[in-house]
Amino acid sequence: MAKTILIVDDSATMRMSVKATLEMSGFLVESAGDGVQALSKLKGGVKPDLIITDINMPNMGGMELIKNVRTLPAFRFTPILTLTTESLAAKRDEGKKLGATGWLVKPVAGADLIKVIKQVLPGA
Question: Of the residues 32, 62, 73, 108, which has the fewest C-beta atoms closer than 10 A?
């Protein structure tokens, strides 16, 4: 059965690009434009096997999203990858402390993204 991935990014272009890459690899894709939309989808019944989030977004950024997702029992162990322009070690450490599974710095080639997804998502 196909795995579902939730992409959270305020850039519509990034969402479309990542979505196309994931769908070509057989994944089902849900998307949200910021952390507020993403949390709303999660609380509304969307059950992704993996969440990929940007860090710098309006309304609710990726760090706050990660923190909030980790408080929801159904998603405590759901892998969360960041896909961001942030490359500072301090930001990365903060993300890991909040519960991020992995940290990818944009731009990421489609093949590399799929490789990382297969590492963090068993059976993908």
Answer: 73
